[in-house]
């Protein structure tokens, strides 16, 4: 399975925000994330970088 | 492997822009994409949506 974990950058730390993310949709105000179970989260953040082979998405606020 | 293909939305069509994308880094002016072989492409576009289980990233210009 090719889901990824989304981390929110908080200073120098990266805090796990959501596991097993399948879908990411940027919107004007932030990002909608949907995990493989269909659970949705919305966050006022943008994508800082992502590395699909490492299953890793880093988000940053604002 | 969990790489994805990046498509660029062009009107109603979605045209393959880059295969086997591993890394995506948004910058002020656009996106840097790096494929699993290390090849880099830069595009003045943003992420419209992505679906990791389908290995599919859709970009849009501007």
How many distinct beta strands of chain A?
6
Oligomer: homodimer
Euclidean distance between termini CA atoms of chain A: 30 Å
| Pair of chains with the largest interface and how many residues each contributes | A-B, 20 and 20 residues
Average pLDDT of chain A works out at: 96
Number of domains in the coordinates of chain A?
1
Which sequence of SSEs, written as H and E, runs from N to C of chain A?
Answer: EEEEEE
Q: Name the shape of chain A in a single word.
A: globular
As laid out across the biggest beta sheet of chain A, the strand order is 4-3-2-1-6-5
Q: Spans of chain A of 5+ residues with little confidence (pLDDT < 50)?
A: none
Structural class of chain A: mainly beta
Count of helical segments of chain A?
Answer: 0
Largest sheet of chain A: 6 strands, mixed
Assign a percent range to the helix content of chain A. under 10%
Fraction of residues in β-strands of chain A: over 45%
| Gyration radius from CA atoms of chain A, angstroms | 11 Å
Can you describe this structure?
The structure is a homodimer of 62-residue chains. The first copy, chain A, has one domain. The mean pLDDT of chain A is 96. Chain A is mainly beta. The radius of gyration of chain A is 11 Å and the shape is globular. Chain A contains no helices and 6 strands. In chain A, strands 4-3-2-1-6-5 form a 6-stranded mixed β-sheet, with no helix packed on it. The first copy, chain A, has strands at 4-10, 13-27, 30-35, 40-43, 45-51, 56-61. The A-B interface holds A 1-4, 21-26, 36, 46-53, 55 and B 1-4, 21-26, 36, 46-53, 55. Chains A, B: Pfam families: CooT.
């Amino acid at each position: 399975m090719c889901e990824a974990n989304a981390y929110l950058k908080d200073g120098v730390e990266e805090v796990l925000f959501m596991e097993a993310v399948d879908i990411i949709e940027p919107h004007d105000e932030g990002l909608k994330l949907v995990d493989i179970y269909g659970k949705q989260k919305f966050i006022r953040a943008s994508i800082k970088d992502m590395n699909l082979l490492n299953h890793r998405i880093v988000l940053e606020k604002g």
